[in-house]
C-alpha cells in the first residue's frame, strides 16, 4: 500500500470510528477512572461539586455498614436461589420443546413475550397478582392452604421470594430460547448411537445432552449471575425505592442508588460500593469466559 | 412397545408445555382483561377472567384525565427511535472499520471494546450523572441517548458479520470509482440488512424498556419515559389496578406489534446472544 493510500484509509477509519471513540472515552473509559476517584473522596454535590480526599475510608465503611451487609445477604440469597432454578427449568423446557413435537415455533414465540416486556410493566402486573385480592391469594385460599389472604409484598418474610418468583418466571423463556438453539446444534448421530445401545430418555439426557450443552450452560449461568447480582428495577418498584419493608428488598444496586441519589454527601461512598459490585461481576465474567471453550473473537471459526 | 412409549412421552411433552405456557401467559391475559374492567369487578372475589362488558373507560381516563401520559408515550418514542437510528449508524460503521480498515491501534480498540462489553452499568451511573451535570444535559433526551449512542456488543456483532463478508464485492465497487462511504452505504449496508434489523430491534427494546437511567437522569415529570411514568402513575394511583393495568398494556402493546411483524429477527438475535 502506498503512503497516500495509507493516509486515505486512516482518514476513512477516523470517520468510521470517531463517534464510537467519543462515546467510549466520555461515557465509559473516563467514567470508570472517575468512579475510582470518587470512591476515594467524600463528594459534595451542593453548589459546585467538591471533593475531599478520604483514602480508602469509604471501602472500610462499606465493610462495617450493617445495611450493606443486609443488601449483600439479600442479593446473595437471590442469586443462589434464582440462578440454579432458572437454568435447570430453562434446560428442561428446551429439551421438551426440542423433542420433535409440533407447534415448536408457536410455543417458542408465545413464551418469548415476558422477555419483551419492560420490568416496570411486569412488576406492576405481578404486584397485582401477589396483592391481597390477587389470583395467588384466591387460588391458595380456594385450595384451603390458608384462610386469611397474605400481603406478600408488604411482608418482610415473603416479599423477596415473590420477586424471585417473578424473576424466574420472566427470564426462563429467554434462557430456554438460547438453550434451544444449542440443542439443535447437537449431532443427532450421538442420540442414534445411544438408541442402538438401548439407552433410555433420561440416560441420554444425562450422558449426552448435559455434557454437549455445557458451553451454553456456561453462558446461561454467567448471564444469570450477572443480571441477578445487578437486580434493581423490581425491588425499586415494589418498595418505591426504600428497600423495605425492614430492608427485606434492599439489594446492592438499590443501596448504591440510595447512597448516591437519595442521601446527601454519600456519593463517594456509593461509588465505593459500586466498585466492589463491579469487581464481583468482573470476576464472574472472567472466570466463565476462561472456562468457555469458545473463541471470543470468532476468528478461530 | 417402543412407539407406545414414544406416544406417551410426546403427550407428556405437550401437557408440560401447555401448562408452562399457561403459567407464562396468564399474568398478561389477566392484565389485558383487567384493563377493560371497572375497579369493583377486578377486586370482586370469584369474578370471571373475561370482563362482564368491555369498557374503554380506563384507557379514556389515562388519555383524558392524566395530562402527562400522552407526553410520556411521545418521549419514549422519540428517545427509542432516535437512539436506535444513531446506534445502527455508529455500530455498523465502527464494526465495519474494525473488520476492514487498517489503522494504528485497531486491535487495541477491539480489545477495549470487548472488555467494555463486560463493564456493568452500576459503575458508570454515578460518574455519568456527574459528567452530564457538568455538560448541562441532565434532565433532557440527550441524557438518555448520548451515553447509549453506541453499543459495544453490537459493534462486536457487526464486526463479526463484516469479517465473513466477501471482499470482492467491495473491490469491484472500488474499481467503479465509489468512495469508501459510498461503498459502505450502497454495497455493504444493504447486504447487512438482517444483522442491522436484529440489532435495531434489541437496541430499541433496551431504550423502550429501560427504567434505571430515566429514573436517575430525568427529574421533570413531563420528560419521563413511559416506564418511569408508569411507575409514578402507580405511586399516585395506589391500588387502582384498573388504571394501572390499562397503562401497563399501553407500554407493552407497541413491542408486541413489533414482535409479531418482525418475529424472525427476534429469533436470530437470540441465537447471536447464545453464541456470544
UniProtKB/TrEMBL annotation, chain A:
Subcellular locations according to the entry: Cell membrane
Keyword GTP-binding set for record: no
Bilayer-spanning residue ranges: 12-37, 78-98, 110-132, 159-180, 213-232, 267-288
SUPFAM superfamilies in the cross-refs: MetI-like
A single Gene Ontology CC term: plasma membrane
A Gene Ontology BP annotation from the UniProt entry: transmembrane transport
InterPro entries referenced in this protein's UniProt entry, alphabetically: ABC_transporter_permease, MetI-like, MetI-like_sf
Keyword terms: Cell membrane, Membrane, Sugar transport, Transmembrane, Transmembrane helix, Transport
Residue ranges annotated for the ABC transmembrane type-1 domain, each copy included: 72-288
Recorded topology in the membrane: Multi-pass membrane protein
Annotated family: Belongs to the binding-protein-dependent transport system permease family.
Protein name: Sugar transport system permease protein
Organism: Schleiferilactobacillus perolens DSM 12744
